[in-house]
Amino acid sequence: MAEAQGGRSLVVDAVTHRYPSGALAVENINLDVKGGEIIALLGPSGCGKTTLLRIIAGFIAQTQGRIIIGDDIVDALPPNRRAVGIVFQNYALFPHLSISENVGYGLAARGIDRATRQREAQRLLELVQLPAMAERLPRQLSGGQQQRVALARALAIKPSILLLDEPFAALDKNLRLDMQIEIKRLQRVSGITTLIVTHDQEEALSMADRVAVLGHGKLEQFGTPSDVYDRPQTLFVNTFVGSSNRMPGVVISADRTAAKVRLDAGAEIIARPAGGVLTEGGRVTVCIRPEHLQFVGDETGFAGVVGMSLPLGATVVHEVTTADGSGVKVSQARIGETRALESGAAVRLAPLAPSLANAFPATL
Amino acid sequence: MGTAPASRDVTSYGMGLAAPLALFFLFFFVAPLLQLLWLSLHNDTAGLHWGLGQYLHFLTDPFSLSVLGSTLLLGAEVTAVCLVLGFPIAWLYQRVGPKLQTVIILIVLLPLLTSVVVRTFAWIVILGRQGIINATLQSLGVIDTPLKLLYTQFGVVIALAQVQMPLMTLPLITALGRIDPNLDDASCSLGAGSWRTFFKVVLPLSLPGVIAGCTLTYAAAITAFITQSLIGGGQMLFMPMYLYQQASTLQNWPFASAISIIFLLAVLAVVSVFTTLGRLSRGYGGA
């Protein structure tokens, strides 16, 4: 497995792309990816992540900005000269070619002779643990096997960067985990810089060294999985990654590290100003994750009425209606005999710690 | 015929439902064909003496064989022209926006909306001695005397190609539309240029359409009585006109029947060659 070639770096420098209609697909995206890193481009459908992938691959010429792979600006290069390996969402294996010919396709395009091609294809098929499939046709393989072949085909050209477009979307849940482990293993072995486009946050958080969250064509945050999950910089990131309760309120006082917020639900809490400086008297949205809310016995928190309790195995989720009529979810770990809450019971809630409530300036 | 629904499978219907069409074919297709065969097996025009004389006559007559040969060759030429001109149109159709697609489909279908006779006369106007092509070339000073375009093999091939073009283009459009566009991108990202992608991916995967289009165009071109006769004129004789002369002018029905059967077998042979080629190509209709 002499695959390690030290992945090349990838810089996405102020890339903006407009559709011919004039609508913005992606706006001023900056990413600095180190050689050998796994990066996830995470965002809901329509956020521009696939457009960005196609720009990096060279299928779309961006309106503005540069793509730099290693030391080379590749904007002028067509896709067939960029040496970027792509695994497509539907794998896009050539249905009329055998598995071996599929894997050797890129080598054939480089004018490498048949014997070498077959030897190299066999080596790669062994790498993705499909050594006995060389002579089959793609349709004779299962989805997971087809994906391994697509991966082998992309790796065969020794790409400087590997792009994976929603690689696990078409796989069932058990297979998905296997393939995630498999891809991480192959990435370790080859040391290749890898970009995974996904709308699945669990996938992004578990696979990637760093996650770039995209929303509405803009880069919302680029950081480690724990940065993105625990210290979201925007309201979008906070609500898109993981689940979160959004509670409106007014700032009473604020400095750079803490803000005192009066929630509309009827309590004063301390929150972390996550999206920049907050102004006194300004409206804010406070995000608190369900697992960061707790029931309190005293008068400190805000009041609510339990609507429904859903036991989800390790946790119990309670839906609580607050005084201002909005609903919040509270997730409680099931430790011993968790107190059963009747529907209609009056309760009081408070965040576990001030750092676990994030306050963002309200947009409207 | 009606099969009793022993198993209550809602997707299977009684064979009896196919009876109306089966009867229609029986009376108007199978019966005449058998009559034709019966007639062709007689040695005299009155149809009294059995024998293989008509077939022997055709197969030993150099003139008859040359008519058959030139007809099959004509079909091949028309098919080749249609394929070479039709493929780029079908390819273009899959790569333009919906508005242009409508325009292309309209252009492709337009010939089908006009009568063959009208279209053929249009070609006479275009190809004639004083026609559009000759008049233009003469006024440009390219040629001194008019070119002979009408009543030539070239003229027949061009006119037939235009008339039969939809039969080639429509199956090609369907076949190219079935190819996953990601395959183009995949090929490109693996380092293949556009020509390599075309010959290694697009062309092999469009083979079902190529074969369907060739079969239809070929069958239509060699049996196109009107266009062949009007553009070809008196000097060029193809099988349909030959047949017509024997049956209608010379009243030699047994020989005309024998010509029909031989022509039918020749067409079937060519079509089965196309089909075999299709089956040999791997990934035929591949998923």
Features:
heterodimer, A: 364 residues, alpha+beta, Rossmann fold, OB fold (Dihydrolipoamide Acetyltransferase, E2P), six-stranded mixed sheet, five-stranded mixed β-barrel, 8 helices, 23% helix, elongated, B: 287 residues, mainly alpha, MetI-like fold, disordered N terminus, disordered C terminus
Describe the structure in your own words.
The complex is a heterodimer of chains A (364) and B (287). Chain A has helices at residues 49-57, 99-109, 114-127, 143-156, 173-190, 201-207, 225-230, 235-240, and strands spanning 10-18, 24-33, 38-42, 64-69, 72-73, 84-87, 161-165, 193-198, 210-215, 218-223, 245-254, 259-263, 267-273, 283-288, 293-295, 302-312, 315-322, 327-333, 346-351, 357-361. Chain A is of the alpha+beta class and 364 residues long. A six-stranded mixed sheet of chain A has the order 6-7-8-3-9-10, with helices on both faces. A five-stranded mixed barrel of chain A has the order 11-12-13-20-14. The longest helix of chain A has 18 residues, at 173-190. Chain A is elongated. In chain A, 44% of the residues are buried. The model of chain A has no long low-confidence stretch (mean pLDDT 88). Chain B has 13 helices and no strands. Chain B has helices at residues 19-40, 53-60, 62-93, 98-113, 116-127, 132-139, 153-177, 181-189, 194-205, 207-222, 225-232, 239-249, 253-280. Chain B is globular and about 70 Å long. Classes of the chains: A alpha+beta (364), B mainly alpha (287). Chains A and B meet through strand 6, helix 2 and helix 4 of A and helix 8 and helix 9 of B. Chain B: The chain crosses the membrane at residues 21-41, 67-91, 103-126, 154-177, 255-277. Chain B: Residues 68-274 form the ABC transmembrane type-1 domain.
